[in-house]
Amino acid sequence: MANFIVAALYKFVTLSDYQAMQQPLFDFCESQQVKGTLLLAEEGINGTIAGTRAGIDAVLNYLRSDHRLTALEHKESWAEKMPFYRLKVKLKREIVTMGVPNIQPDTMAGAYVRPEDWNALIDDPDVVVIDTRNDYEVAIGTFNRAINPHTSSFSEFPQWVQEQSGEDGVLGKGRKVAMFCTGGIRCEKSTAYLRSQGFDEVYHLQGGILKYLETVAPEDSRWDGDCFVFDERVSVRHGLEPGEYELCRACRLPLSAHDKASELYEEGVSCPHCHGTHTDEQLQRFRERQKQVELARKRHQRHIGVRI
Q1: What's the whole-model pTM score?
Q2: What is the end-to-end Cα distance of the chain in Å, rounded?
Q3: pLDDT in tens, 232-252
Q4: Which residues are catalytic?
């Protein structure tokens, strides 16, 4: 039975007093023994937190007691052990960084498509299906027919759109576009951005990949692989069951069993993705950290930064 509830949440709404909200929110989450990361900005709130059923419910009720966040939606999954090792409440310029001013996701986002209706949309050959996540996320799983923009950060996405909007691009004039991301927040901005650029028919997966994997049966699925998540579970599968990926503690990229079998893999130090990119000083630091990890394992203790 799951011991911890993992709640992913976001809402685009004007929070002019977001700075004043930081400490009270931190204190309340801490009082409920809830951990994870919450981002506050003038444009809204975003984050993923984990705790007991009672703790998560208390934090969600606390947030929704603010009239601006009454309609705050969240998605839940589970973990057998706490997937975060500390609590952070951060102040940001954007709750998801695109770097384009005056995007208005609360009024300009594309049309929502329920997970139950997503297959029919992306099976349409006239629809361009775009994965708005970063390259390393796409590499471990995505939807059939999805285009990978090969971005290393979301701030690169607008440039990709501009490059692909010409007659010869995948976003040529008049195309219908379906977009998706992990939990839905990036698509609020990416679809709003496309609409601001003159695209008329823009859709996005309501609740993101996580809601699709929770809702759609594996035998009916168009999803192939795992979905990367930003906590110590690393990835999830259908039914939001934990996947088999682990993190490279040097570069923070997900590792498959094949990656770990590589001669370039050294636990806690390097992997096929980052081998040869670190300085001698960094390698020495990584090896010392790994030594402490091994000592903690022998004592049956948890070391920060180790998969649990």
Answers
A1: 0.88
A2: 16
A3: 899 999 999 999 999 999 999
A4: 181
